[in-house]
Every structure is written in structure tokens, then in C-alpha cells.
Predict the 3D structure of the following.
Amino acid sequence: MSIGRRLTASFAGIALTALAACDGVTGVGSRVEPALIIFYRDSSTIVAPDTVSRGEAFTVRIKTFGGGCTREAVRADVAIAGTLAEIRPFNRTQNANACTADLLFLYHTVQVRFDVGGRTVLRVMGEQRGASTGGTNGPALVERAIVVR
């Protein structure tokens, strides 16, 4: 085997070892958690039209909080019953010994459709962190009313 092939094989072995040891790259050692929607004095924003048409889907965009070991928006579950749409966003958090000390906004986009008219509510359910919860998270919700014609 030539020196070039031995070096290539050695570098490939080192790269595979490093990749296998890095949880952040492979996704191993992570957990999916309810998104943080209230962070101290800041609340998530719910971006949606003020008025929508009955039976027509529309886009809802939710800003959640991340940073540190939480760096990815994973999914948002939607359940609609009458005039209420419950949206539960989830983010991925890496299990790590050390994380960055930053704050990120992670966005979730969903489609919602109401089949009834009148005043309806978009309810985002997730977690909160603040002075009242200390270093742990607690349940939270943020709502926005819209009109269906």
C-alpha cells in the first residue's frame, strides 16, 4: 500500500471515529421537548392573518426560544376542535456536558383550517422559563384570536 493510501485510510478512520463520538452531528444523545414559548419577560409571537375564510387553510408561524443545546425546531402538532386550534411545537435538545450561552429563535410553521365561522383562538402550548420557575421549565400557553368568515 502506498503512503498516500495509508494516509487516506488513516484520515478516514480518524474522521469516522470523531463523527461517531460527536452527538451533535449524529443526533444520538438528543431529546425532543416541548418548545420554550415564554422566556422570562419575552413571549412567543404567533403570526397569522387577522381574518381568514371558513374551510380554507392558512399559515401560522410561531417563534419559540432556543440556544445553548437547543438548536433545532422539530415539529408542531395541531389539534382543531370547533373554534380552538391547539398547536404544540417541539424542539430538539442535545445531551451535552457544555453548551453555548446564546439565545436563538426557532420557528415552527403549520397549516390550520377552521370549518366554523366567528371568533376562533390559536392556542400555542409549550414550556416557560423565568423568575417564577427558577432554572426549571413549567407549562405555558400563548393565545391569539382570529376571525373566520
In short: The domain at 29-148 is CATH 2.60.40 (Immunoglobulin-like). Helices lie at 3-21, 23-26. Confidence is low (pLDDT under 50) at residues 10-26. The two ends are 75 Å apart (CA to CA).
